[in-house]
Design goal:
single chain, 204 residues, alpha+beta, 4-stranded antiparallel β-sheet, 3-stranded mixed β-sheet, 4 helices, 7 strands, 35% strand, rod-shaped
Length: 204
């Protein structure tokens, strides 16, 4: 979690740097009359720097699931059905946030004269998911006498567990939580720079 916080701080720092650059460009010394026109526009260099940081995490859910997976096996020309089964108790983490590599030129717009800033972020999505091996364990492993024991069954159960914890996190609203947290964090930090009108939006 400390690594995620540090990464998020670095990303916000990059955004703030872009805003400060835009603000300072308005408040610097007056240029010579021949070059007195000031143009405020998004800085592509800042956008590229944010893209390099790649991800801004907004929410992390710890999920637990029980996976009951079985394989039916037919024996003696279908007269007998045997079963190889596993009951896996799985725990894992799902992280959602914004993929900053998807930022485009024009997504960060500042107006120093009016103390106005507008930031458009990509839609939040699931950034990563993983099974916690320390808390995941096989509760029951059962193979009928006439069944062949499939050693790959546990691997399949773990894959199903990871898929199911992502689905459960989506149903629990992880994307909306990531959206709210990301908007709140960016808006608060930008306001602390002195911008009174701050708009943080998400791309449709």
């Amino acid at each position: 979690m400390l690594g995620s916080v540090a990464l998020a701080a670095a990303v916000i720092g990059a955004v703030i740097f872009g805003l400060v650059v835009g603000r300072c460009s308005d408040s610097g010394p007056a240029p010579a009359p021949a070059t007195s026109v000031t143009v405020v526009r998004p800085s592509p260099n800042v956008v590229r720097a944010i893209r390099d940081l790649a991800r801004l995490e907004g929410a992390q859910y710890h999920m637990e699931r029980v996976v009951d997976l079985s394989e039916k096996q037919s024996r003696f020309f279908g007269l007998i059905e045997a079963e190889d089964a596993i009951l896996l108790v799985a725990a894992g983490d799902v992280v959602a946030g914004v993929d900053l590599a998807e930022l485009r030129d024009g997504d960060v717009v500042v107006d120093g004269d009016k103390s106005r800033a507008k930031i458009t972020l990509p839609q939040p999505k699931v950034l990563s998911s993983k099974i916690d091996n320390d808390r995941t364990y096989v509760h029951t492993r059962r193979t009928d006498t006439l069944a062949s024991r499939k050693e790959s069954l546990e691997t399949r159960a773990r894959q199903e567990a990871e898929r199911s914890i992502v689905e459960a996190a989506l149903q629990a609203g992880i994307l909306e939580r990531a959206r709210q947290n990301t908007r709140r964090t960016v808006e608060t930090l930008v306001r602390s720079l002195g911008y009174t009108e701050v708009t943080v939006e998400f791309r449709p």
